[in-house]
Amino acid sequence: MRNRSVRESVGSIVLGFELIVLFLGGLVAWGLHVAPSAVVITGGVVLIALAIVAILTLRYRVGARIGFAVQVLAILAGIWVHMMFIVGALFLAIWIYAMYSADKVERQKHNETENPQ
């Protein structure tokens, strides 16, 4: 079993929690009939699938970019379910902080292995 990077660990936690929120947001959109059922279900499934792809590709830089796209799309879902503007913005802030912090920890670990005291 390979060691996961801090970016993978933290990113998968954020996206994992967001998967629950996206599912529940899709249920709210469906229950409020904000759009035809097929559109709501398709949009929800695509967004959830994109989050899963981001989790699976977090070992590469593209995974973080896909994760960022999920955050932006979650905010845009606020067009139909207005609370998603707030929820999406909160997850975007968490995502940015998590990715920044993970990179910082990775750099520190890298520097410590190169220059042991």
UniProtKB/TrEMBL annotation:
<dbReference type="InterPro" id="IPR025327">
    <property type="entry name" value="DUF4233"/>
</dbReference>
<feature type="transmembrane region" description="Helical">
    <location>
        <begin position="72"/>
        <end position="98"/>
    </location>
</feature>
<feature type="transmembrane region" description="Helical">
    <location>
        <begin position="38"/>
        <end position="60"/>
    </location>
</feature>
<feature type="transmembrane region" description="Helical">
    <location>
        <begin position="12"/>
        <end position="32"/>
    </location>
</feature>
<protein>
    <recommendedName>
        <fullName>DUF4233 domain-containing protein</fullName>
    </recommendedName>
</protein>
<keyword id="KW-0472">Membrane</keyword>
<dbReference type="Pfam" id="PF14017">
    <property type="entry name" value="DUF4233"/>
</dbReference>
<keyword id="KW-1133">Transmembrane helix</keyword>
<keyword id="KW-0812">Transmembrane</keyword>
